[in-house]
Specification:
heterodimer; A: mainly beta; seven-stranded mixed sheet; four-stranded antiparallel sheet; B: 112 residues; mainly beta; five-stranded antiparallel sheet; 11 strands
């Protein structure tokens, strides 16, 4: 059983398109996150949701919109994709407060052409 | 906010040697630190954590050392194996939210 699952694993799309990445966790965690990892492996927080409520929104273009229909799901919708959006996007979850570690999904490699 | 960084982007070792990966952090109020391992094509996996009331914590073949005076922590891997080849991240919470800030990662390459 996959604890944090993301779909799709790979996504290739043209500039200007709108795409979504889905994330689900079956760990019963209250907090979920989206991270972006660039080609140099730098891992940067984008959003954090606790019990469906946004608690962290780092400096991310408003073309990125997270949606949490329930606390087990945090989807990422991206409008008007740009070349610079190409990266690996990771979903993660943790118990509230995050002091007991995080569980990451296996990532979605987004390539914008 | 917190800033964390690993000292070397790449570390090459021979199989069987001990590996030491170093990390510096900026916020002296940070009280919780985590090490993650990221294998190729996978998400980061939790290895070990340490709280600021400790100087050392041991796991299976791994030891984390924390030096709060110089704001430095290290991950030591004993008898490094090819399966240890991965990118290693240290992370420290940012502000009061406990959302970790990650450094760039150190790529550990283990030569047979």
């Amino acid at each position: 059983d996959t604890a944090v699952s993301q779909t799709p694993k790979y996504l290739v799309t043209q500039m200007g398109n709108d795409k979504s990445i889905k994330c689900e966790q079956n760990l019963g965690h209250d907090t979920m996150y989206w991270y972006k990892q660039d080609s140099k492996k730098f891992l940067k927080i984008m959003f954090s949701y606790n019990n469906k409520e946004l608690i962290i929104n780092e400096t991310v273009p408003n073309r990125f919109s997270p949606k949490s229909p329930d606390k087990a799901h945090l989807n990422l919708h991206i409008n008007s994709l740009e070349l610079g959006d190409s990266a690996v996007y990771f979903c993660a979850s943790s118990p509230t407060g995050g002091r007991d570690g995080y569980t990451f999904g296996s990532g979605t490699r987004l390539t914008v052409v | 906010g917190e800033s964390v960084g690993l000292h070397l982007p790449t570390l090459s070792v021979q199989e069987g040697d001990n590996s030491i990966i170093n990390c510096a952090y900026s916020n002296s109020a940070s009280d919780y630190f985590i090490w993650y391992k990221q294998e190729s094509g996978k998400g980061p996996q939790f290895i070990i954590d340490i709280r600021s009331n400790m100087d050392k914590r041991q796991g299976q073949r791994v030891t984390v050392l924390l030096n709060k005076t110089v704001k430095h922590l290290s991950l030591q891997i004993a008898a490094t194996q090819p399966g240890d080849s991965a990118v290693y991240f240290c992370a420290a919470p940012s502000g009061g939210s406990y959302i970790p800030t990650f450094g760039r990662g150190t790529s550990l390459i283990v030569h047979p």
